[in-house]
Amino acid sequence: MHITPVYIVCSPRPLVGKTLVARQLSEFLLLKNGTVAAFDINLKEPSLLDYLPQTTETAEVNNTFGKMALMDRVIVNDGVSKVIDLGFHAFDEFFLMSEEIGFMKEAARRGVAPIILFLADSDRLSTAGYAVLERHIPPTALVVIENEYVVRGELVESMAHGRVLRIAALPTFLKTYIDRLTFSFTGYLRGEQDSSTELHQWIRRNYISFRELEMSLTLQRS
Amino acid sequence: MAKPVVIVVGADKGGVGKTTVSRTLLDYFNANSVPTRAFDTESPRGTLKRFHPDITEIVDMTTTSDQMKIFDTLNAASPSVTVIDVRAGLLSPSLASLRDIGFLDAAKSGQITFAVFHILGPSIASLDEIAETANFMQGAKYFLVKNFINNTSFFEWDQATYNSYFHRIKDATELTIPKLNEMAYEQVEVASVPFLKFVANKGRDEEAANYSFVLRGYVRHWLSNVWTEFDRIKLTDLVGSGKMGARMGEK
Questions:
Q1: Is residue B109 part of a domain?
Q2: Order of all β-strands in the sheet with A37-41
Q3: Distance to chain B for A71, nearest Cα, Å
Q4: Residues of the domain holding B23
Q5: What residues of A are in contact with residue B213 (Cβ under 8 Å)?
Q6: Is B206 contained in some domain?
Q7: pLDDT of A53-83, one tens digit each?
Q8: Residue B194: inside a domain, yes or no?
Q9: In this predicted model, what pLDDT tens digit does every residue of B190-227 receive, in sequence order?
């Protein structure tokens, strides 16, 4: 049976790089599979919808109707990878709801593989949020994203035990460059002839990390 | 042979969730493999019957013939548990009728196990019913059910009022029914199936249905909490049935 990954990019903190990861992951999946369905649950942060309007739709989890619209699609094993850009304000509600409706169990039953990509930070809110996830999410489905641009120095010890995916910091001028709404990671890889540029290598490194993540998913299932 | 068990679910006020609690009881007994039958006193059109048509009969408890239908068949009927969903306003008159026909005496002498689930609403009037109902409760198991259909606090913030009602009756057991998500509740209403079937994504005739995964999850979570309360009061012990491993609905 084929599996459908559902990547949930999250943090209880704003401005830690959730949308950046969701954006890049969505572009990678689009490149690899030719299709992706992204969901933007951000009202107060830079929005995935602005970057990838063709593949992204808005979703909400602060009312039952919104939860149904999102989760009833996400739980379907249709072979289309899903990416959820979960805004910090929706973190608690989303995982509370997931726990109540038995999302992880039902997903396993249906061949849907949720992967929680948790953007690490060293503050108390992040530590507490991660502890909640650790209690409810199997270790194989929980990945810490160490965004070097945000995490200056060592990862908090509790987050360093499990699987960690590292994203290197970009110089500020390149960060500004990729933050432009018209910028496409895949477009850059295709358009830039010089593969030795820092940005080229940075994007490739991240794409390789995503590919490894996908492969580990396949191996876990087999 | 196990004693017949009669469970009356009622309140003197409408809209407090009598039928909802009756439905959870029927699902609970079904999941615990306890044979059950039900009577719906919302004559002529019963809500309970809509959800559990196979085991529910609509009766008018004020008529002698229907009283005979329920109580004269207690020993003959094979199901060990009889659940009666009493229409709003009829709890006290029904209990009075039961006293008059000698049913309460039979319960007192231990021939029958009799339990009353008194569903409370969020009003002083609803609490006043407790005292009225308590007069009939000798020999019966009396459960005061706080049904959180809204965000009521049942006067817990006013300890004097709370104590004057909830601690007035000796041996009354309090039971809490948590609130179910409104949309989930409505979806089950529309589906007109038992909660268990809704959770299992099945239609009336066991056919595959297409209910929302989210709403099914909410119902499953809620039903599990309700059943935890039933486990707490040892409802299966009351009906003389031990718990048999994993319940159907929890598999």
A1: yes
A2: A56-58, A37-41, A82-86, A4-10, A112-119, A142-147, A163-167
A3: 7
A4: 5-180+234-250
A5: 71-72, 75, 101, 106
A6: no
A7: 999 999 999 999 999 999 999 999 999 999 9
A8: no
A9: 999 999 999 999 999 999 999 999 999 999 999 999 99
